[in-house]
Design goal:
- Helix content is 36%, strand content 20%.
- By secondary structure, the chain is of the alpha/beta class.
- The strands form 4 sheets. A 5-stranded antiparallel sheet has the order 5-15-16-17-18, covered by helices on one side. Strands 6, 7, 8, 9 and 10 form a 5-stranded parallel sheet that branches.
- Helix 2 runs parallel beside helix 3 and helix 12 packs across helix 13.
- The model has no long low-confidence stretch (mean pLDDT 96).
């Protein structure tokens, strides 16, 4: 990769939109300098308004191939479908996946992410072993496959191998459908260390760790995993599912006398390294405590709606200064626009008001707030220097297509409102990740080949 200069007539910087912005990218793929009110000179002129690329902070890549397979009800099951019945469908689906199939599915997903404006992904990866539950000869085989898909397609990745040890609160025995997920802390840390050694020095790859949930670990295994990760990398991200379902909260209360977020805040308080995914069901005290902790909440509104999880207490959390970002989780949708839109729309349905999350005195700045806060939370959660067009960050940027009807003649200060709330047409024209153009004029450089491989996998899985 060589250094180069880019010129944007409008670019979304940390303090808002700026005119005539010169972006200088070094040979490593970092932004060396960002200059406002500059002359274009010999720089490459970008074809539309420029945004920082969005981070997708929560992904289970293999689930992209089962999107649409759980949207039916078995005879006699009407009214009884839930997250827990969906989970059984997922267990059956995942039971036979091979490493090669996982890589092909992840590659297709990552192409879709890039084309929609995601430039980085947090891969919350719990599919570790063979169908019989036995580790592969290389214990990190499955993690290597998703990283290989990320490298091939060009998306940045934070790989989060998952610690999954039990089937329920209080160290309940795991079920048959969970056997491919199971590791103890020592074996899981072996995966983390192997990945760090394999990808040391690659600015597009970061490795963290994900205790799956409080129901899948104990206090002792949680401590062992976090302590071991800290020894390997003191700043590495830690992600955890929490309080997604009412039943999860009820089971946690029965086990400990505390709600999930309450238990975590009391026993192992999270900090800025942590991302708590979903956190849907919280009391007012939990909401304030989590916001004050500095941890990021990972919100996945399309999946949370699809699974019937409930609505996150967004207004109270944001009012308390809480950090948040977005992910696509089960990938029934792969669009940052849709995640941000439904984050706000869920609050409108709950409160029967409009522009609920706009903030103080921000009548015209809802899109600005949603996009900029999601950028910051996503970058923090993935532990990578992304999320802003400024010197020292990765050159991850999205060029909007000015020919998109929803953006036509729109004043620059309204572009993000129009992007998020004015229709379902993808407005992304070009995408750069780490200084490398991976999407040009709406097409990914390898999308045909990737799609062909994906179709072969689907034909095999669904036959």
């Amino acid at each position: 990769m060589t250094s180069h200069k880019l010129f944007a007539e409008q670019a979304f910087l940390s303090d808002g939109w700026a005119e005539n912005v010169l972006l200088e990218v070094d040979a490593r793929g970092d932004l060396r300098q960002v200059t406002r009110d500059a002359a274009a000179g010999d720089a490459t002129r970008l074809a539309g308004p420029v945004l920082p690329g969005m981070a997708n902070l929560h992904s289970h890549a293999f689930q992209r191939a089962m999107a649409g397979l759980a949207e039916h009800v078995e005879p006699g099951g009407a009214g009884d479908d839930s997250f827990w019945t969906w989970r059984e469908v997922m267990y059956r689906f995942v039971g036979t996946l091979t490493p090669e199939q996982v890589q092909a599915i992840a590659a297709q997903l990552y192409v879709e992410m890039l084309k929609s404006g995601y430039t980085a992904v947090g891969e919350f990866h719990y599919l570790h072993h063979g169908p019989d539950g036995q580790p592969y000869d290389d214990i990190a085989e499955m993690s290597h496959r998703t990283i290989a898909a990320a490298k091939a397609t060009g998306i940045g990745i934070t790989q989060l191998p998952v610690l999954y040890g039990y089937g329920g609160f209080g160290a309940q025995q795991a079920g048959e459908g969970q056997r491919r997920f199971l590791n103890n802390p020592n074996r899981l840390l072996g995966i983390v260390e192997a990945l760090k050694i394999s990808h040391e020095g690659d600015p597009q790859i970061r490795v963290g760790l994900a205790p799956h949930s409080l129901r899948a670990v104990t206090l002792e295994t949680l401590d062992e995993a976090v302590t071991g990760l800290t020894a390997l990398d003191p700043g590495a991200p830690i992600h955890l599912h929490i309080a997604e379902q009412v039943k999860e909260v009820e089971d946690c209360l029965a086990w400990s006398g505390r709600r999930p977020v309450e238990w975590l805040l009391e026993n192992r308080p999270p900090d800025r390294r942590w991302c708590l995914v979903h956190a849907t069901h919280m009391s007012a005290a939990e909401t304030k405590g989590l916001a004050a902790s500095g941890a990021v909440v990972g919100l996945c509104p399309t999946t949370e709606a699809n699974l019937g999880d409930g609505l996150f207490p967004a207004a109270d959390f944001l009012d308390a200064g809480g950090a948040w970002g977005i992910g696509s989780d089960s990938h029934i949708s792969v669009s940052p626009v849709e995640e941000l839109r439904w984050f706000e729309y869920g609050q409108r349905l709950a409160t029967r008001r409009r522009n609920v999350l706009a903030g103080e005195g921000a009548a015209a700045a809802l899109g600005h707030r949603l996009y900029s806060e999601a950028l910051a939370g996503g970058a923090q959660a993935l532990g990578r220097p992304i999320g802003a067009l400024e010197a020292g960050r990765r050159a991850d940027l999205v060029v909007l297509d000015p020919a998109t009807p929803a953006l036509s003649q729109m004043p620059v200060e309204r572009l993000l409102d129009a992007t998020i709330f004015a229709g379902n047409c993808n407005p992304v024209r070009d995408v750069m990740v780490g200084g490398d153009w991976v999407v040009c004029e709406g097409s990914h450089r390898d999308e045909r080949k990737v799609l062909e491989n994906y179709r072969v996998v689907l034909k095999s899985l669904l036959s």
